[in-house]
Amino acid sequence: MYTSFEMRNFRCFPELTLSHLNRINLVTGVNNVGKTALLEGLFLHCGAYNPELTLRINAFRGVDSIKVERGKGAETPWDSLFTGFDVSKEIVLVGSELSSGNGAVRRRSVSLSVIRDQDQVSTILVPLESTADESGKLLLTTKSAPQSSSSVDIVLKLEHREEKDRVGEYYMIVDAKGLHTTPLPPPPPFPAFFLTPRSRIPLQEGAERLGRLEIAGEQDIVVKGLRVIEPNLRRLTVVVTGGTPVIHADLGMGRLVPLPFVGEGMMRIADLVLAIGNARGGVVLVDEIENGLHYSALYKLWQVLADVSSQFNTQIFATTHSRECIEAAHRAFADRRTYEFALHRLERFHTGVRVVTYDQESIEGALETGLEVR
Amino acid sequence: MNLKIEKDRLVLVEGKDEELLFEVFTHHLGLDNLQIMGIAGKDNLPKVLKALTKSPGFVNVISLGIVRDADSDPKSSFQSVCSALQQAGLTCPTAVLTFAGHNPRVMVMILPDAQSSGELEDLCLRAIENDPAISCVEKYFRCLTKKNIPLSRKLPKAKIQAFLASRLEPGKRLGEAAQAGYFPPQEPAFSQLHQFLRDVAS
Lengths: 374, 202
What we know:
- The structure holds 2 protein chains of 2 kinds.
- Chain A has helices at residues 35-47, 53-60, 118-124, 203-215, 220-226, 259-262, 264-277, 298-311, 323-334, 360-369; strands at residues 2-10, 13-18, 24-28, 91-98, 105-115, 128-132, 138-142, 152-162, 166-175, 178-182, 192-195, 235-241, 244-250, 256-258, 283-286, 315-319, 341-349, 352-358.
- In chain A, strand 13 (244-250) and strand 14 form a beta hairpin.
- Chain A is α+β, with helices and mostly antiparallel strands.
- Chain A contains 10 helices and 18 strands.
- Chain B is built from 8 helices and 4 strands.
- In chain B, helix 4 (120-127) crosses helix 6 (155-164).
């Protein structure tokens, strides 16, 4: 679980530090202040070794076609990741994470830089060999004799550093063949899911996630979550329709109903709970969490999310513009034994953005007196 | 209710009545750069201050004024404000009507006059002491006392209500009465408060 997170030179943040993180973190702030970018930075950091995630976060925003230009001064596919589109500076993402096992805090950093200089490219690039260390993480070694890199134009270098000693380097390369990554990144240190307001989890993926919970006998948590807005729900099951497995709901109507036909809110909650349940010990990032949900369901939704995230030891970072959503979350956590909730507001400050974090008392004061928190 | 920091000079007052009355003063004094904010009761001050310091726009606040009633003890009221300020990470002035700190600088006013026990209504009574209705109000309360009718411990509040009953449009709360002009803002009784507002707005 993250206890703090820092970013430098990423998207709209020359610098940003997010502290006092809790199990559930709700991020608010005015439009274009960087709420989604914060989630994206976290997602890249969760992915740890995978430079391809840099393209995936752009796809989450709907920018899913990549223009690959070659040659000196050409725009790179990563320009928009760098503050002011200035790829000459390095992006640095640093997270401190609390281990659930021994309670130790470890610090991991992910840095990204674009390399265009041909001498540098030829020095660091293929042939690359990777070897696994004792923990199964890949360590990169570079052969001394550089291969001619005349066909390689631009490289995105991802450097992963754990504390000070363990370093891994991964590259995404633009060359005549297009875009490719080397060496093959290992799986991330923990699972992470990013739910955006625009996209929905594909039906098959949703069914697979439910299946994984069913194998572990934990599918009831999803039914409990969905009963927040559909009290008549009896059970969920996966039915293969037209070759695609689809989650169906038993609403006591004498026949099963495909979940997407029950309603948008049902799908949203299903996506949320399935992501949390499949991210055991990991992180779920949710952009505009209240999207598709009636305000009256929010208190119960937060109760469910609190239960599920605690059961699966999953940390949640979500954004919202809704005061009702913030209020519902505060009430839901205030009614529990432990207040595992923090509200963070991003606020423009001088030339950058700062974070204001509310604890239980300050949220309560603001909500009771009607002070703006968003 | 959705309170937003809209100006960089801010005065926190106990409730709606104070808010309306102080708005009459700021208008009278031409202090357009001053925002008056009611906190729905003095007991809310510690948590309001904590929340306020985290509110959007607080980083731009230059001056913060805090007004509360002395009640039975002006010193302990001032101490209570200081304690709330410190809990919120703000600087407490060494005395009432002096500034401390910066970004924001903070000034505290304890009503009615920074040194006596009492409350806002005492100050308003002083402002209307020359109104012809006041002698009738006093006579009314003497009559009640004579007849052994138990009176509220908050006698100034009761007297204000009796005074407001004498107006053409009775039944208004203190703040509404202020907006209706029943407490003339130019009265000398308010001059200390005016200076406080000018200082915070400066």
